[in-house]
User: Which sequence fits this backbone?
C-alpha cells in the first residue's frame, strides 16, 4: 500500500456530477453531467425535484431500503464552488478535513504503523473499565477473542495503574490490527465477541461490497482492489489508514479506517472516488463502507464540483426489543447529521478557497480543475 502525502473526510463522501440537458422539467442552467444524474435518479432514488434543488446549491439527502435489518444506507449530495483538485487536496489532509465538534481526536498511521502514531489518542476510561467485566458473548466493548485474551493476560487489573496499562495494551492491539490488515487484508480482522451471534469482519465487509453496486459501476478496479487487498492497488490510487475518536450517540467511538482516493473516467466525466471502510469500531458498528465521488460541474462560469455521499453501516443496536423505535431514531439522526455536515463542509470549503484565491490569486485558478 502506497503511503499518501502527509495531508491528513468526515462521514465518508460519495460525490458525483450529473449534467442535465434542456429536457422539459429540468432546470434551465443545469451543469450536472448525465453520469451523475443516472447515479442520483436510478441508483439513489432521488427525484427530478431533488436534482433541481441540488443544482441550485441545496443539500439533498435520504436513506435507502437496507438489504439487512442491521444496515443503514444514507445518501446525500451537495454542489460546492471549488475546483476538484482543491477538494481532493483537502481530503488528503484527513486530520484537518474531518475536524469538527464530533471528531474528538484523529491521526494517521505510518507504513508500517507504530505505537506513537496513537500518541494523541486518549482511550475512554469507561472503555478500559469495561474490559474488566468483558467475556465472550457479553462485552460492552468490541473486541476479538485474541484482543480480549491479550488484555486479560497483560494487565493486572488489581493494580492501581491498571487503567493506564489497559489503555496502553489496547493501543498496541490497534496498531497490530492496522499492521496485520496492511499485510494480510480483511481476513486478519477476526470476529467481535461482544455478542454471541457476530460474524467475521471479513464476511461483513465482503457483504457490504456485494450489496453496494456503486464501486462496480464506477470503479471496478477499486472494487477488485478491496476484494484482493493488499494486492493490486490500482494505478493512480493512493491509500492511507487513519484512526479517530468520534462522538456518536451516547459514547465516544474509537475507530480505524482505510481510505483510498482513485480518479477515473466514467462516460465522458472525470470522477475522483474516495472510498473508505471501517476496520474497527469500539461501539455500535459491525462494519461500514462509504464512497465519495467528486466531479466537476460542466460549463460553469467558475469552478464547482458535485459531491454525492453514500454510506452503508451495520449497526448492532438495530435488532432485538424496541428495534423499530431505535431504527427510527437512528435513521432520523443520520439524515439530519448528514444535512448539517454537508452544509458545513460546503461553507468551509468555499470560504477556504476564496481566502486562498484572495491571498494568492495564482495558486488555484479555474484551469486547475481540468483533468490532471
Assistant:
Amino acid at each position: 500500500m502506497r503511503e499518501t502525502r502527509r495531508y491528513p473526510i468526515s462521514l465518508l463522501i460519495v460525490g458525483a456530477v450529473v449534467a442535465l440537458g434542456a429536457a422539459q422539467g429540468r432546470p434551465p442552467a443545469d451543469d450536472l453531467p448525465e453520469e451523475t444524474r443516472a447515479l442520483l435518479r436510478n441508483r439513489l432514488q432521488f427525484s427530478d425535484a431533488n436534482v433541481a434543488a441540488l443544482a441550485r446549491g441545496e443539500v439533498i439527502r435520504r436513506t435507502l431500503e437496507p438489504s439487512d435489518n442491521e444496515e443503514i444506507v444514507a445518501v446525500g449530495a451537495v454542489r460546492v464552488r471549488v475546483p476538484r483538485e482543491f477538494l481532493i487536496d483537502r481530503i488528503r489532509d484527513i486530520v484537518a478535513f474531518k475536524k469538527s465538534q464530533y471528531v474528538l481526536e484523529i491521526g494517521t498511521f505510518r507504513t508500517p504503523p507504530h505505537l506513537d502514531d496513537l500518541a494523541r489518542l486518549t482511550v475512554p476510561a469507561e472503555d478500559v473499565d469495561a474490559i474488566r467485566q468483558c467475556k465472550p458473548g457479553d462485552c460492552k466493548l468490541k473486541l476479538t477473542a485474541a484482543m480480549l485474551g491479550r488484555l486479560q493476560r497483560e494487565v493486572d487489573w488489581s493494580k492501581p495503574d491498571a487503567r493506564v496499562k489497559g489503555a496502553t495494551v489496547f493501543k498496541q492491539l490497534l496498531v497490530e490490527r492496522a499492521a496485520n490488515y496492511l499485510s494480510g487484508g480483511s481476513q486478519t480482522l477476526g470476529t467481535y465477541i461482544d455478542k454471541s451471534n457476530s460474524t467475521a469482519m471479513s464476511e461483513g465487509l465482503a457483504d457490504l461490497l456485494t450489496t453496494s453496486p456503486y464501486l462496480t459501476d464506477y470503479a471496478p478496479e477499486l472494487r477488485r482492489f478491496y476484494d484482493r487487498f493488499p494486492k493490486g492497488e490500482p494505478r493512480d490510487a493512493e491509500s492511507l489508514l487513519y484512526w479517530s475518536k468520534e462522538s456518536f450517540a451516547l459514547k465516544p467511538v474509537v475507530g480505524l479506517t482505510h481510505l483510498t482516493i482513485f480518479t477515473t473516467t466514467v462516460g465522458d466525466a472525470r470522477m475522483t472516488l474516495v472510498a473508505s471502510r471501517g476496520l474497527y469500531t469500539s461501539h455500535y458498528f459491525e462494519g461500514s463502507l462509504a464512497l465519495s465521488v467528486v466531479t466537476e460541474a460542466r460549463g460553469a462560469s467558475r469552478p464547482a464540483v458535485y459531491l454525492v455521499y453514500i454510506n452503508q453501516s451495520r449497526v448492532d443496536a438495530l435488532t432485538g426489543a424496541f428495534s423499530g423505535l431505535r431504527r427510527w431514531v437512528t435513521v432520523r439522526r443520520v439524515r439530519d447529521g448528514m444535512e448539517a455536515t454537508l452544509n458545513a463542509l460546503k461553507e468551509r470549503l468555499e470560504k477556504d478557497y476564496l481566502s486562498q484565491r484572495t491571498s494568492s490569486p495564482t495558486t488555484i485558478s479555474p484551469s486547475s480543475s481540468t483533468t490532471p
Notes: The first strand starts at residue 60 and ends at 64.
